[in-house]
Amino acid sequence: MDxxxxxxxxxxxxxxxxxxxxxxxxxKNPFGKQPPKxxxxxxxxxxxxxxx
Length: 52
Hints:
The protein is an all-alpha fold. Helices cover 29% and strands 0% of the residues. The protein is elongated and about 65 Å long.
């Protein structure tokens, strides 16, 4: 008996189970678009102020 032929098909290795909602190249996160650093600093300062 050939046990390799029995059972479910093997899934591909190292493949994600689902697509990320903010994957690179999607509408929410297009390629080549880097958010400005000033925006990041603003968000970090707001988070720090909210925390402390």
